[in-house]
Write a structure and sequence with these properties.
The structure is a homodimer of 334-residue chains. In chain A, helix 1 runs parallel beside helix 2 and helix 6 runs antiparallel to helix 7. Chain A has 334 residues and is α+β, with helices and mostly antiparallel strands.
Chain lengths: 334, 334
């Protein structure tokens, strides 16, 4: 490779309806359970990878949202670039990576999902490495589990699988199948004390973990069916129960992970009140953090959003419908 | 019975370290699991039962904290009086029952535990019925499960048992064995939307319930050992984990029971912050409601209490050490 090779990819974040929590194999990032998510069209990461054999520093550089990133974040990206180079069968040159999120990074939106999906696609394209979506999904998974799902648009299931090749995502329904809205109620933008990546290794210490995993076949079937038939009244209880079950596992792990804040509870109680008292069809889910995602159809979105913004402790409300999978938006130059 | 027969008993409430949640047999009130609690010396119910063959109304009357009580509460008390009369082998006369709590009824303190313990002892004594503590514990259990524990002072375990005679409590350690303090942070005095009595019948609908039950042998052993050796650092993590596991079961039941409020989370996070940042040895537990019980030793109580009172949403802080079992304070007249 003698010339600079560069590519840019864009990947939507995703919100899981059945959560990924707990690793079965930490080296391959194989999960304990299948998960299902909606890829978010309006909350995305754009990443440019430039392989630079003539790098004066002879080292990778990483910019996130315009600022140089070092330490564990940069190391995690470099390890991922090593994987891409290994797939290409080359001794890799240093890379310049610039990543930009169109949402606040610590807003409770899964930035590592969109970041590692975009990084995988951009890095492979910049090397001229042609991988099919199965191989890209497996690659993205090793960067961040939920990134395997952001490869695809619409509604996506990540099969737990049993090895590197089989633990990959596939689309369940396209984005235009059902226009659900994710309203993200941001209650804290503080960095998490325990990252999801290290939290995953604690799942097995909870006395409730195996019971949650065992219950998921039924929950996954319910979510697939609700998505196929666009049935929010079937989808909603299943996603609330699994979000609560995942947080139950987190809270009862050793050490205990308590991601919720007072405003988290204010939102959960409000959602149930709006449903019970006003018949507002909206359900919640919560990732590994204090922020709450409210899922509804477009007809209810304005009512939900305005009520949300009046709650104490809600700092911002972001919004997204389903979107496309990871897309190469600037080709490599060869 | 020709003369009026009257007796008064006092019973402390109790705070469970390993919770009772879920019934195995609803008619006998047999629980799914053993539970362990501390009987509270300073938060108690005083109940007078007067059997009155000459009652002009020919019906039971019930006063709670000076106000006439009717409806489901009064029926529950009358059903309990039926049980006492049945044990005595008599057709019972109507009764006048007056019950007084020295704490606000909906404050998150288990008023049904102290109420049914006191009612059992007073009603039996007023009939001249001599029951040993095993029989009284079984009787109280049928009124309210946790009342079986309030029969005894200090630290008490309720054996799940397999029938009416075997599902009874017994003391583990006397009250003077260890001067733990329960500081009750009251965040809401609203009546619960779902009473614990009906919540117990939902436990089996949670996918996490059997896992919690299966994990309790270990947790019970840890709590017994921590009590025996007065080891708060061993007791604390076990009681926090079981409180969180019980609420996990509640939240993931169908329908889902979400008892926590924003201030509940503020307290849980504060307790962990005080432990981590200040080394303050205090742990939390939570009954079926939004209020939080903080468990510490006397040396830390003032510091915990003053910090608690500065938290947003804490309306009051009540306090109690361990106390005596249910006591007859006025004998029947025969």
């Amino acid at each position: 490779m003698s010339t600079t090779a560069k590519a840019t990819a864009r990947a939507g974040s995703n919100i899981a309806f059945i959560k990924y929590w707990g690793v079965a194999d930490a080296s391959l990032n194989l999960p304990l359970n299948n998960s299902i998510s909606m890829t978010l069209g309006d909350l995305y990461t754009t990443t440019t990878v430039e392989w630079d054999p003539d790098s004066p520093l002879n080292a990778d550089t990483l910019q996130i949202d315009g600022a140089a990133a070092t330490g564990s974040k940069a190391e995690r990206v470099s390890r991922h670039l090593d994987r891409v180079a290994q797939l290409a069968g080359i001794d890799r040159p240093p890379a310049r990576v610039a990543s930009h999120n169109n949402f606040p990074m610590a807003s409770g939106i899964a930035s590592s999902a969109s970041a590692f999906a975009a990084l995988s696609v951009a890095a492979a394209a910049a090397l001229g490495l042609h991988l099919d979506t199965r191989a890209l999904s497996a690659l993205a998974r090793k960067g961040s589990g939920s990134a395997s799902r952001s490869l695809f648009g619409g509604y996506v299931e990540w099969e737990r699988g049993c090895d590197d090749a089989s633990s990959i995502a596939h689309p369940l329904q396209p984005a235009d199948h059902w226009a659900l809205i994710d309203l993200v109620a941001v209650v804290s933008t503080a960095e998490k004390t325990v990252s999801s990546a290290s939290g995953h290794t604690l799942a097995h210490t909870s006395p409730l973990n195996t019971a949650r995993i065992a219950s998921l076949d039924r929950a996954l079937a319910q979510v697939r069916s609700a998505l196929a038939t666009r049935n929010l009244a079937e989808l909603g209880p299943a996603i609330e129960q699994d979000a609560l079950a995942m947080h139950a596992v987190m809270m009862t792990s050793s050490p205990s992970l308590l991601y919720w804040q007072p405003a988290t509870l204010a939102i959960l109680q409000a959602v149930r009140r709006w449903r019970a008292n006003e018949g507002l069809p909206v359900y919640f889910t919560i990732d590994a953090g204090p922020n709450v995602h409210l899922i509804c159809e477009p007809a209810a979105a304005a009512a939900v959003s305005s009520r949300l913004q009046q709650l104490d402790g809600v700092q911002a409300v972001l919004s997204s419908g389903p979107g496309a999978g990871t897309t190469l938006i600037q080709e490599a130059l060869f």
